[in-house]
Amino acid sequence: MEDKNLESIIEGILFAMGDSVEPARIATALETPEEDVIRILDELAARFEEDGRGVRLTKLDGSYQMCTSPDIYEYLIRIAKQPRKAVLTDTLLETLSIVAYKQPVTKAEIEKIRGVSSDHAVNKLVEYQLIEEVGRMDAPGRPMLFGTTEQFLRSFGVTSLEELPTLSPVMLEEMKLAAEEEAKLTLDV
Q1: In CATH, what is the architecture of 3-73?
Q2: Of 71, 107, 154, 188, which has the fewest beta carbons less than 10 angstroms from its beta carbon?
Q3: Coil, helix or strand at residue 159
Q4: Does domain 90-188 have CATH number 1.10.10.10?
Q5: How do residues 114-168 score in pLDDT, each as one tens digit?
Q6: Is the pTM of this model over 0.90?
């Protein structure tokens, strides 16, 4: 394989991995001598530095990692300080409601209520700091229990969970009928 192709592959590997990678692991994956990989890594590092690129290759205890150039830290800090706007889709709101009203609750319980996998929704809500792991269930596998956070309370303008609206029996029955109808439609398809 040509050096240019190896260089491109190595650069892609380092970018995708995010963490430091040993040249031996790269050499094994590319079926290339480790000396060639180290030479290409050193050449890449020098070129990134010479070109004044926004990324650098850093050598850490014999491993290499792609990282941000120190020259742009100031700009990274500025953008990191900008608040990220969390978009709560219907799926996220539905999952968040289940956690808020049923907490502490496991992912399996959420999925049983929703009828679909909730991995993505739970992970996004944790990322947005609206829910968090509050413990482990004393059951086989010790599944995680999730509950809402202070950020949840702030975001929804309540000071405690007791302030969440309660559902009337009529609303509960309407929701139950709607869910059953939706389940029938899904089965008919």
Answers
A1: Orthogonal Bundle (1.10)
A2: 188
A3: coil
A4: yes
A5: 888 899 999 999 999 999 999 998 889 899 999 999 999 988 888 888 888 887 7
A6: no
